[in-house]
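Page 47, continued from p. 46.
Same chain as before, 288 aa.
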Amino acid sequence: MKTFFCAVITVWALTAPYALKAQYSENLASDRPGATYSANTVGQWVFQVQTGADVGRVTYTELGFKNELNESLDAKIWVESFSTATDLRIGVYKTAEVGFTLLSRTQRQENDLKAEDLLYSVGGEPVYAYVPSLRVSVINNKQFQLGLMTSFLYDEDEDGAGIGRIMGSYALSSKTAISANISYTTYSNSTTPDFLGYTLNFSQAIGAFSVFVENYGSFIIRTKEDPFDNDFDFFFNAGAAYLLNPNFQLDVTFNGGINQTLFFSPDARAQQLGASLGLTWRLAPFRD
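Result:
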């Protein structure tokens, strides 16, 4: 973390002689909380840090396991996870920004078959992923915002993936908004299928608080050679954010869902529960 903030200060020092002032909206353009990315950029010569930690538990059922007599076993696998995400967003123009995200994830497995390595390694080491990105604001007025984002994800398991995203937001009133994202992810290896993702977010401001509910999911696009069919995963988020001041926000999110993981059989299912805590901090050193 100390190295991270040293990097931020270094960027300030390099860009200060060329910056006139920071330009950004009075509303904090944070991607937190929830899964929906903001359609707005942070503003020219504005630096923004978004960070959070997530805990989750996934219960896998209907796995298709059988015993020696070919009888179906009512087996379950539980996977507990802890993950973090830290984003640095830098406004290079009033309608464009670059970003970098560092992700980490640790998982631990339990099962009622007393067997190891059925799905994930038990007590495994953290897996890291790195995501540089470019975001532009196409339309930005008080009622409607539209943004485009492209990013590349590199992690230690999947080699790499390109992600394209369209973000939109529509204000129903001064305190109520609907936001949505559509994304497409394609992996560089031949074994991981592409998927089409979506989010739909409804938010309501109540003074310094804002609350939201959100549905998000993905449609996995399998190849003809893949033994499984296309499948659809969906989840729900609900949470709140508190704006301590115009540049600092705290947030909390709870999520749950049922998805078709299909790791073991066409009937396999996974039930997910989780929670997240995070913050957003906007730094505008060149603002008048």
